[in-house]
Amino acid sequence: MSKKDWEYGIKKILISEEEIKKRVKELGAQITNDYKDKEEDLIVICLLKGSILFYADLCKEIKLPMKMDFMTVSSYGNGFETSREVKIVKDLDENIMGKNVLVIEDIIDSGLTLKRVLKMLGHREPKSVSLCTLLNKEANREVEVDVQYIGFNIEDEFVLGYGLDFKQEYRNVPYIGVMGEF
Ligand code: IMP
Ligand code: MG
Description:
Blueprint: E1 10-15, H1 17-35, E2 42-48, H2 52-61, E3 67-76, E4 85-90, E5 100-108, H3 112-122, E6 128-136, E7 149-153, E8 159-160, E9 176-179
Parallel strand pairs: 2-3, 2-5, 5-6, 6-7
Antiparallel strand pairs: 1-9, 3-4, 8-9
Helix pairs in contact: 1-2
């Protein structure tokens, strides 16, 4: 395989396109059911960039009125993982006060990013905040995060594709793959 191949460096498919599609439908149905009787507006938030493909597919399966909004955060390490800071690079357009907020993430690893994002959103006094992640890597969890919806629990391996990147590439690969040796 040459470096020009979009699958270069991927050693195996962990979750196929078909499996993703099936699980996204299930999650969408579950979310639809959970929110269908709630009075307040629903705002579904995409954490860019990793969640983009999952978010787009999932939103089509949430068969309720909703607003779509986007946020970019970045983490800065200072050597101590636990004091890692999370900065908002692109904030939401919507005011979430009094609304039901559903945050969509690609993967929860240490949990530090999400913990801080949820705290920041909580200060804006939404009616509720729930979290949906495509992938959950429990093995690396450093802080507890309350996750309401999980696509797949995975082992401690570095994964790529379906939005997830390595040095900003591989996001367009349509399945979840495991990174091999380069
Ligand atoms: P954490 O939960 O704060 O440790 O960080 C989660 C973020 O790390 C995710 O949003 C991803 O951007 C990135 N990340 C963690 N594990 C992986 C992986 O296996 N592949 C690609 N990105 C990952
Ligand atoms: Mg991410």
